[in-house]
What does this fold into?
Amino acid sequence: EAQVTQNPRYLITVTGKKLTVTCSQNMNHEYMSWYRQDPGLGLRQIYYSMNVEATDKGDVPEGYKVSRKEKRNFPLILESPSPNQTSLYFCASSLYGTYNEQFFGPGTRLTVL
Amino acid sequence: AQTVTQSQPEMSVQEAETVTLSCTYDTSESNYYLFWYKQPPSRQMILVIRQEAYKQQNATENRFSVNFQKAAKSFSLKISDSQLGDTAMYFCAFTYMNRDDKIIFGKGTRLHILP
It folds into this structure.
């Protein structure tokens, strides 16, 4: 089944404890992206990647890191999480870019205490 | 920077009625794409409809259609014969053609279909 998977689905952590949210797609897509969703703010793009070893900042990249060492994986890293990073996170992929349909993962609910 | 505005935070309609969700955007360029994405209570985001700005014909997908007014920078979504399964948050989104691969989403409209 063609899909985007994210892990974990739910995570509660404490301020300053490094964490990684994994994202993987099995559709051989070139483009991958991370978003955060907050009430009243919609979805905001954190980072995106056009292909392996090519990543770029979205609108809200502060406090996040990403890497794209393989086509299928695009992990989101929070080196020192803070409470303002409490949010719902989505990973998405598309064939070549944002003009193609994006396929979203199921979301990761992150709480930083 | 481009912006996407959805002026209706929340709407409710009776099942089988037609409902229109509004979206306006701001850009000085002429080549771009517009989207409507749906997020049901399951949180799974799915694409509803896509419109290329260079196409004058409005996109349609079964009961879903758009009214794309390029000069007015308006991109509304019409849902005909609404069904309970249409209950969801709907996001309008904008991206440029052949430029950076950023995408801007609106803040969303929460739509309730009432039985």
